[in-house]
Amino acid sequence: MKTRPTPVNVLVIALAYTLLLAGCLPQDWESNAGATFGAPTPTLFGTAVKTPIGSTPTSTQESASRGQVCVFPVDADESGVFSEAALYRIQWTPGDENLIVETRGGTLTLRAPATMLMGARRVLIVHRGEMPEELQFPAALEPGGAMLFDAGSGATELRNPDNSIRSQTIRDPRGDISGEKPSLDIITVERQIAEAGGFIMRLTTDGADNGEYPWSFENVELLLGQERYTHRILKSGKVVNLHYDSEGNYSVWEGTLIVQANTLTWALNHGAELPFGARSATSEARADSTILFPVEVMHRLWQASLTSCG
User: Which one of 37, 70, 142, 273 counts the least CB within 10 Å of its CB?
Assistant: First the structure.
């Protein structure tokens, strides 16, 4: 025996088909090319859909949210605890000095030099710590490239348009050396990878060496995996460059080390995939030390973005 549909059933069925059809309609992002967008809609590890709103752009700042924002989970340190990460697609235009990004962790200002080339770029952030108010967008980041940022450590990584790693940087606060000389106050440590193979490690301090050595010696050390590269200055002013292997055995370093003002640059051929950091000390006490660059965190962030966002 067949039952005839009631008016209520007909209405429910019609509404269901309408919702199903609406869900299948394509989203034409290009039709909104002239609009700016608000902050990402909160979603639980899904693609954030953004609604266009009226806005008047200026010559020095504009909303970076004209592109899509893809939100996804990442287990940054294999602890089993997932952090929220997001990919922000932005467009840099000539004349811009900075760009405002409404991120999942708050407003972020990207600053770039006047030599920054126009074009689309990607910013990948793992939101597992407090976001800074601004980040430097280096001119070396080519159109089509990507900048990765770990809010937990403050480390950044640049990727070329072909997805290869261009550089990796960790930063350390100024003045955290308890009154020691500025040449022992480490500011940044950067690894730049060459296209033809090999790489350089550039360590920058808050000031150049002043030539005064009131202690037996002072060290500025580059840490690479389980090895150390030490630039040591004795009380007499004599310089000794050393290499310590993973077992603590040392020898005189005969490779390339360039000291220029407040930077030390090592040219190396092995260990481009290893974590790195730096520290400084005198014969009296430890002066400064940085975090280790989170190689695995960046790798997982990059792979998760490719899987989740394409």
Answer: 273
E strand or H helix at 191, and its extent? strand 186-193
pLDDT-based confidence at 46, cuts 50/70/90?
very low
| Token pair 């954030």: residue | 48
User: Do residues 108 and 98 make contact, with C-beta atoms less than 8 angstroms apart?
Assistant: no
In whole angstroms, give the CA distance from residue 270 to residue 278.
Answer: 17
Distance CA 35, CA 66 (A): 7
201-216 CB burial, b ≥16 within 10 A, e <16: bbbbbbeebeeebeee
Evaluate if residue 209 carries a pLDDT over 50.
yes
pLDDT score at 98: 87
Which one is the CATH code of 182-290: 2.60.40, 3.30.710, 3.10.450, 1.20.120? 2.60.40
C-beta of residue 275 within 8 angstroms of C-beta of residue 294: yes
Tokens read off for 301: 């962030």
- Residue among 263, 151, 154 at smallest CA distance from 206: 263
Q: How far apart are CA 115 and CA 121, in angstroms?
A: 15
Q: What is the dihedral of CA 62, 66, 71, 75, to 10 degrees?
A: -50
DSSP-derived secondary structure letter, 267: E
Asked whether 93 and 120 are in contact (CB, 8 A), the reply is no
Q: Is the pLDDT of residue 41 over 80?
A: no
Domains of the chain, by residue range, sit at 42-166+296-309, 182-290
